[in-house]
User: Which sequence fits this backbone?
């Protein structure tokens, strides 16, 4: 039963939204909006389900006495506290803001700083493992762009910042990026068409 | 078309017809009568199971007739009259139909396919005579042009009798000559001959005797009847059966019911009569089957060999008076009787032996030269040269010789038979070995034989008999088999009655020839041995002269020189033992001396003695002593077999218990003898195995592990430089003074805003990029605020609203602008669904975000008053570090606006992005979808420079530049260093390998 209706629903909904783009009539627009809003609601519910799944996984990990169950316990506790406070105080409450500013923001910021050190270290060790031409070109390009991004203290390297770096970004980078974007767009279009015709069923069923 | 002759009646039929128009029998004996027949059975196929009833039609005519005759005879009470022996002419046609069926059992003989006319003449005369009655019809209907003798006899067809031949004898009828004999024979009942081939109870044998005696006396010739009389008066006749096929069996249901009177030939019945008239009719020596069995074989078997009948006649001669002797003589003079039989009857005083035969024609088989075996004919000839009793038989012999040329051969008639004839006092059993099973069991006729005659001729006869048996061993296999079966059952005549040669014979040894029982009367004595026996090579026997097998091989066939004059032991061996003489007499000469000594010592060992009597062909198979002898040189281990089949061989296991002498086994060294090369190989193998057990040492591989010191160094340097620069607020690095178009456009768009409108700020960046994004978006937002724009903040990230609050706080700290929630900005919160949420917000912001403040919708409160659609925003500023979110916002908004509200201006979209997303988002700027683009800290710094502001961009610009310079330096130096190290390592590896 589900094998028949699930594809039908998915196809109908996708066709309605697509047709709404080509024939923006009021009815189709309204119908599309309704379907989109349903998707928004389902996405919100999916986040809630994800949180619950996270809880179950870590609870199971604690129950099986697996390695790292302490961090799982800390996670569960933090989750429950934040959830309770947010439900009680509200997301805009200064307490919640302080928790965010004291925990989430520094943690993520620190991770970004460590990533900087890691990227520098990776740059240093790149030629040790891959001492080929492409690795050297990559590394030189990175250095040039880095030099063009910020002028040197007390000295600005001519043409690097004004000509080389802009050309690298506008020509080489942009061309590459556009190629990637086109590929992504085509892939997204083909994936959508496969879902519309029922070839792919990410929602499940055979 | 060629006519077909009926195999039964001889009627000529057309080839198209299947059945005879006269008798109705099948003209062609084909297998097509059977279901599925006509096809040959291929290999692997199983023949089709058929019922016997279905196969009736496929039976040959002779078999059918035989079966019919048997059935009819069973029904008849009175046997058909036996044709008179004198009636040599073919039987009357009236009798022919009757006899035709009766003669069915005899048809099997007639059906023998013998195309050789000469052989037919030679061998089948007596046979044909027997069948004379059966084939009278055929004789009449036979083509006149073809004589019966010349006519080929085919299988299934009864031979057509010639004019000269008598009709074949049918089942239940005695041959003509036998019937003739019976006519002339005395009325005395003849004792039944011992059945050599079948076992029968004494009662049945007696019945048989009585039945035989009921045979018409007129059928037997006189001499036979006389013989039978003598036989009955002296000793019980040995019930013998004529030579029969080996498959002779008790009377079956199908066997024809034979009238006792008709079944026995006259001479046999006379013999029986003689036997019964004795004082003590001895039980038959040989246990025989029921009399019916005797009748049937005898009656059915018309081919009583002449020698058998001769035996009977000889047995009777003891009892036959001289007058009676003349009777057989008279009878013998008749053309029907063979000479030897006539001689036997004339000379023998014994009553004629009870001979059970069918009525035979006067042309007895004995007269036919082709019928008598050679040894019998030889006996005849030898008998002619013997003493007066033999001379009396001479005319008989001569007559027989004339009439039966085959009998004239000296080697045909055994001497003992001729002696019997001549003496007239000997009883010779049909099977010489049968007679002497035991003295007590000797038939009357045999015992009635005068001892004086037997004493004189036993030896000679025994010798002759052994010789003849040796030469004719192949001709009488059935006889021998019967002999073996019945040796203990044949009654032996008394010594007084036995002929000399018989009296010299001892009791047959069931085991060893070496067992000589002196108390037994030997059948023969050397003095009494006839000449023909004397001429035979002496046979070494146990006791006096015992023939024992020796270790050496001997030829299978023994020449004449092997046989010696028959002694008492010889005769005993010949006639009394189970083993035929030709077999027992064979033996190597080398072992005679040893065997004789051993035989004396082991008289009680019957097994050993029996083993000594190995025939030559068996002895030839014995292992040669040189081969059998072991390789051991130890004389103690050599065991010479003294007895047994391995006598004389060495190195054999002794047959006696204990396996010979017990000796200590030879001691063998248990030490393994290994050569040097083997030892070296073993040591090598041991070393290999030991090496396998040892663990292999693995060299630790150099693995490239991360250097944590370098990371700490990098981190420390960066922290130091950046921190110091940031804290010192030195302006070592000049502000970027480049003209960046996308920044310029952004500035221009913001400057073109009317002011007091609503700007949509979309905070879709993560907390980790808040520092960069703050520095990037701060100048733009400050410009918007300077323009008096109200801000509406949304986020598709859960942390976006909080980040937005922090950003605005910072802005407020750096600028003099006062930002108040609900006054100049409204934080609408988080929109779930990613792209769907964006599309939903873009399509209908109010429907997407239902937020109320003080029970009023925020969309009705400032700063969102007048904002009903997405396009009501004055500008859309997208703050993101993620490429996908930026793209999605751009794509969704421009597509929606382009498709639906073409006339409505689409709000400009400004994007403040991280430096990492610039390459991907810049095309959107280049395509015009994005109106302005500020990317990275440099863009922010540039944007501030262009506005003449001094914000986070300029503050972070120096530290950013120093830190970036340090990174550049470290990467450059480090990369160069590692490159050199790698190259150096690569150069070292080939050198090490080389």
Assistant:
């Amino acid at each position: 039963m589900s094998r028949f209706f699930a594809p039908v629903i998915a196809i109908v909904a996708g066709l309605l939204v697509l047709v709404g783009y080509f024939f923006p009539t009021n009815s189709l627009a309204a119908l599309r909006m309704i379907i989109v809003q349903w998707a928004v609601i389902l996405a919100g519910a999916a986040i809630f389900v994800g949180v619950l799944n996270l809880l179950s996984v870590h609870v199971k990990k604690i129950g099986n006495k697996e390695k790292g169950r302490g961090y799982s316990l800390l996670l569960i506790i933090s989750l429950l506290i934040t959830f309770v406070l947010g439900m009680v105080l509200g997301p805009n409450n200064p307490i919640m803001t302080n928790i965010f500013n004291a925990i989430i923001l520094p943690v993520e910021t620190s991770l970004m700083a460590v990533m900087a050190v890691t990227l520098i270290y990776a740059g240093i060790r790149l030629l040790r493992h891959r001492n080929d031409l492409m690795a050297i070109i990559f590394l030189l390009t990175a250095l040039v762009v880095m030099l063009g991004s910020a002028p040197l203290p007390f000295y600005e390297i001519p043409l690097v910042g004004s000509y080389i770096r802009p050309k690298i970004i506008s020509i080489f980078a942009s061309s590459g990026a556009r190629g990637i974007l086109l590929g992504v767009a085509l892939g997204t279009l083909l994936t959508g068409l496969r879902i519309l015709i029922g070839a792919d069923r990410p929602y499940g069923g055979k | 078309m060629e006519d077909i002759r009926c195999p039964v009646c001889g009627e000529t039929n057309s080839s198209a017809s299947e059945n005879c128009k006269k008798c109705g029998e099948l003209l062609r004996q084909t297998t097509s009568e059977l279901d599925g027949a006509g096809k040959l059975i291929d290999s692997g196929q199983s023949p089709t199971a058929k019922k016997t009833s279905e196969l009736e039609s496929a039976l040959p005519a002779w078999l059918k007739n035989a079966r019919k005759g048997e059935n009819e005879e069973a029904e008849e009470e009175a046997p058909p009259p036996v044709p008179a022996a004198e009636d040599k002419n073919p039987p009357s046609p009236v009798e022919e139909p009757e006899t035709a069926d009766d003669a069915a059992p005899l048809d099997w003989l007639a059906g023998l396919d013998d195309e050789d006319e000469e052989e037919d003449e030679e061998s089948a005369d007596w046979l044909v005579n027997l069948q004379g009655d059966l084939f009278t019809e055929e004789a009449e209907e036979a083509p006149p042009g073809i004589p019966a003798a010349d006519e080929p006899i085919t299988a299934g067809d009864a031979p057509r009798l010639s004019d000269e031949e008598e009709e074949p004898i049918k089942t239940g009828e005695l041959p003509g000559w036998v019937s003739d004999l019976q006519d002339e024979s005395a009325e005395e009942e003849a004792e039944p001959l011992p059945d050599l081939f079948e076992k029968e109870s004494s009662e049945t044998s007696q019945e048989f005797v009585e039945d035989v005696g009921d045979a018409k006396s007129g059928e037997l010739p006189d001499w036979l009847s006389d013989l039978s009389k003598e036989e009955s008066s002296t000793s019980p006749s040995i019930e013998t059966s004529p030579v029969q096929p080996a498959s002779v069996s008790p009377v079956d249901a199908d066997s024809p019911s034979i009238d006792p009177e008709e079944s026995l030939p006259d001479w046999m019945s006379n013999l029986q009569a003689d036997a019964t008239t004795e004082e003590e009719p001895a039980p038959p020596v040989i246990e025989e089957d029921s009399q019916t069995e005797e009748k049937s074989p005898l009656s059915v078997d018309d081919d009583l060999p002449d020698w058998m009948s001769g035996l009977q006649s000889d047995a009777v001669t003891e009892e036959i008076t001289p007058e009676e002797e003349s009777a057989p003589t008279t009878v013998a003079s008749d053309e029907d009787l063979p000479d030897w039989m006539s001689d036997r009857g004339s000379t023998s005083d014994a009553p004629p032996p009870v001979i059970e035969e069918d009525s035979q024609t006067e042309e007895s088989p004995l007269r036919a030269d082709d019928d008598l075996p050679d040894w019998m004919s030889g006996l005849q000839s030898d008998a002619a040269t013997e003493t007066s009793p033999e001379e009396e038989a001479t005319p008989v012999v001569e007559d027989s010789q004339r009439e039966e040329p085959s009998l004239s051969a000296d080697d045909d008639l055994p001497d003992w038979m001729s002696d019997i004839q001549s003496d007239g006092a000997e009883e010779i059993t049909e099977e010489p070995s049968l007679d002497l099973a035991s003295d007590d069991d000797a038939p009357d006729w045999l015992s009635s034989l005068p001892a004086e005659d037997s004493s004189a001729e036993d030896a000679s006869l025994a010798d002759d008999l052994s010789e003849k048996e040796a030469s004719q061993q192949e001709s009488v296999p059935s006889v021998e088999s019967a002999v073996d079966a019945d040796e203990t059952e044949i009654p032996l005549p008394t010594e007084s009655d036995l002929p000399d040669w018989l009296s010299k014979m001892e009791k047959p040894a069931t085991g060893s020839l070496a067992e000589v029982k002196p108390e037994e009367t030997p059948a023969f004595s050397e003095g009494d041995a006839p000449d023909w026996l004397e001429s035979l090579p002496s046979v070494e026997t146990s006791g006096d002269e015992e023939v024992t097998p020796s270790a050496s091989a001997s030829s299978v066939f023994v020449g004449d020189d092997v046989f010696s004059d028959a002694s008492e032991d010889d005769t005993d061996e010949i006639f009394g033992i189970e083993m035929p003489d030709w077999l027992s007499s064979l033996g190597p000469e080398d072992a005679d001396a040893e065997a004789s000594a051993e035989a004396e010592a082991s008289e009680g060992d019957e097994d050993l003695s029996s083993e000594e009597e190995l025939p030559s062909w068996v002895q030839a198979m014995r292992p040669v002593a040189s081969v059998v002898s072991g390789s051991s040189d130890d004389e103690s281990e050599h065991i010479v077999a003294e007895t047994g089949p391995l006598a004389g061989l060495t190195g054999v296991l002794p047959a006696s218990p204990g396996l010979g002498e017990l000796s200590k086994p030879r001691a063998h060294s248990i030490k393994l003898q290994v050569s040097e090369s083997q030892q070296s190989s073993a040591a090598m193998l041991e070393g290999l195995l030991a090496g396998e057990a040892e663990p292999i040492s693995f060299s630790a591989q150099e693995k490239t592990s991360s250097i944590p010191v370098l990371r700490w160094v990098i981190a420390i340097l960066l922290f130091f430089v950046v921190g110091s620069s940031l804290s010192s607020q030195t302006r070592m690095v000049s502000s970027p003074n480049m003209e960046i178009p996308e920044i310029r456009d952004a500035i221009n768009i913001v400057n073109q805003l009317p002011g007091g409108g609503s700007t949509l700020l979309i905070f879709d960046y993560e907390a980790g990029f808040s520092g960069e994004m703050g520095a990037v978006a701060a100048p733009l937002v400050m410009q918007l605020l300077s323009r008096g724009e109200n801000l509406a903040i949304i986020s598709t990230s859960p942390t976006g609203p909080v980040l937005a609050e922090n950003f605005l706080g910072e802005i407020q700290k750096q600028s003099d602008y006062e930002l108040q929630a609900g006054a100049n900005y409204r934080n609408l919160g988080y929109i779930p669904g990613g792209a769907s949420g964006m599309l939903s917000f873009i399509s209908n912001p109010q429907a997407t975000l239902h937020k109320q403040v003080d029970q009023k919708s925020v969309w009705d409160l400032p700063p969102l008053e007048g904002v009903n659609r997405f396009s009501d925003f004055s500008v859309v500023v997208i703050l993101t570090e993620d490429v996908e979110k930026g793209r999605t916002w751009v794509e969704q908004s421009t597509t929606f606006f382009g498709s639906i509200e073409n006339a409505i201006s689409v709000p400009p979209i400004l994007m403040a992005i991280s430096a990492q997303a610039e390459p991907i988002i810049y095309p959107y700027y280049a395509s015009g979808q994005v109106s302005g683009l500020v990317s990275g800290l440099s863009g922010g710094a540039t944007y501030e420079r262009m506005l003449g502001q001094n914000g986070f961009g300029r503050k972070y610009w120096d530290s950013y530049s120093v830190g970036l310079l340090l990174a550049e330096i470290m990467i450059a130096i480090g990369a160069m260093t590692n490159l050199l190290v790698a190259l150096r390592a690569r150069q070292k590896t080939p050198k090490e390998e080389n």
About this structure: Chain A touches chain B through 63 residues (CB under 8 Å).
